[in-house]
Structure formats: structure tokens, C-alpha cells
Amino acid sequence: MIGSFVMTSGSHEVLELFIERYLDQDTLTVAVAGEVDIDSAWQLDGALQDGVARPGVSVVVADLAGVPFLDSTGIRVLLAGHHRAEECGTSLVVTNVQPVVRRVLEVMAVFTLLTTEHGRVSRDDRPQKAG
Known about the structure:
This protein is α/β, with parallel strands linked by helices. Helix content is 32%, strand content 30%.
């Protein structure tokens, strides 16, 4: 099971970010669990940058099912990964976005960009039912 643990660093607690990678033919899934913020975003950045530049990979899927929180640093990392993927001739698509993270991405007007792969809409980009 993927989880996070608390490390004490000075006067604040740092939650560890867990990242697992799964390769299936030409698709690399980067499954993330934990809060993506200024203390942990560098880990996600490294995983995405490595993934999009990896030979033989045409799609990198950032699976955020285990991410309950994403700050502006995390958004920057996702956008940088998306840009790098385009430079490398690959795609980066974000999936399994939790409601709070989805709302942040929508407010920042990047949700559709990050959840669409070369014109194909991911499951997460379908309209949500109100209620």
C-alpha cells in the first residue's frame, strides 16, 4: 500500500511523497501518493522529466489518485512536464484527479490542457454532474 509518513524538520512536519512507476509497452505510469507542495514537488518533477525523456516511451501518465493536495509548485511541475513532453515528442496526461486538485487545476485554467492527450480527452475531463 502506498502511504505517507511524517518527518519532523525543525518546527514543521514534512509529508513524504511516494512515487511508483509502471511501464506497459510505450506508456509509463507515474503513480503519485501524498501532498505535492513546495517541499515535495521536486520528486514529482524528477520522475516526470525522466519519464518524458525515456527512450521508447510515447505517453507518460501522471496518476494523481493518491494526491489530496497540490499547490502552485505542483502545478508548475505538471506544466513543465507537459512542455518537456512536447519537446521530446511524447505526451504527458494527468489522470485520476481528486476533486480538490481538479478544482485547483480548473481555477488555474490548466485542467483540460493537462488531462488531454493529443486531442483525446481522458476520463477525468468529462463534465462532472452537479450535486
